[in-house]
Amino acid sequence: MKKTASAKKPAVQHAALFEEAKKVLVGGVNSPVRSFRSVGGDPVFVKRARGSRIFAEDGRELIDYCMSWGALLLGHAHPEVLTALKKAIGNGTSYGMPTQLETTLARMLAEAIPSMEQVRLTSSGTEAVMGAIRVARAFTKKNKILKFEGCYHGHADHLLVKAGSGASTLGIPDSEGVPLDFSRNTLVAPYNDLERTGALLKEYSGDVAAIIVEPVAGNMGLVVPDTGFLQGLRKLCDEHGALLIFDEVITGFRLTYGGAQNYFDIVPDLTCLGKIIGGGMPLGAFGGGREIMKVLAPLGPAYQAGTLSGNPVAVTAGITTLQCLARTKPYGRLASATQALCEGIQKAAQQEGVGVRINSLQSMFTVFFTEHRVTNYPTASGQDLPAFRKFFHALLLNGVYFAPSAFETNFVSAAHTQKDLQETLRAVRTAFRTTHER
Ligand SMILES: *Cc1c(COP(=O)(O)O)cnc(C)c1O
How many C-beta neighbours within 10 Å does residue 437 have? Predict the structure, then answer.
């Protein structure tokens, strides 16, 4: 356990902070995974962060691989973003009127992701997905949406569905409070399964408005698309008159300067963005071809709105982040750093006699405690969860913060240094030893 040099005051215990939080915040948090439910123990309360590091309220310093769930590709408190934000705040924090900043960001998105001819900004990824689906339904005049098991698209009613057995077709909600009627129009197929997807489209032929997919799945742990999967979806959509929606809330500007669609060279009809494009501020976006997007109000009959949509402070963080990414082009370096880290983790696992499968792509990776290839939700669910819990907590004790669930991806940022990666590998080696302990 490392202490910061300046931690002179008696350490605050996170358990005590969590108890206080639970008195007034539901479960002590404002978003469920933060609560450590799936790994146990008390969440880390953050005092401040910089670069690759979290400085916790109890005085610990942690190398962070959660990176605000992927929102921070440049790392925490990036100086350029902070300077731009300070200036923006001085001009006022919200107007509810158009600004040139919004045009600038939309133009940057459209240039980087040419399928997004027309863009609408929102305040979160959830809202971006809700808007895209409404547009898809309004444009096609069809009702059903096909999604993939284990893909997360925000917490909208009709998307909180992953369905039970592979045989079930009509969506069963994952959450109480979602009437069956709301999820009835959500079809679910296993990720990477074109055959099942094709069969569902055939079965509901004529009523599927869109297929929505994470082009690289990050919400069941990292699962990459099999060769031909995304191309296959494009083809199926064209055959059945459905739109293809890429939920690039994680992958947008993470795999490359642009989207997974640039990386894999596949053109979806609609794209959803969030996380990185807000540079750590609340911001999302969706967009697509002009012909499709014109169904959206004020041009068309599909309504969507937001008091803080296109907020000048958030948009400034987004523009500055994208400018910095375009200028510094960190993608090659991020990919090789991540690959080296994953190779080191794999080697440490072998040496310690721990069976793991690591999925990684560019700056994303997940360590699955399983001997099997992980290609979809059922195979991701086959991992040894108690082993992951021990691994997670041992890492934490040794100064490394991984995403606090076995079903998440970790993120390497442009701020992670060689020294960070070496320290991480040392912690990983120690952590693997503990997974043997009963
Ligand atoms: C995080 C996420 C969302 C939801 O974004 P919020 O900003 O949390 O509402 C949607 N889709 C994917 C793929 C995500 O990872």
Answer: 7
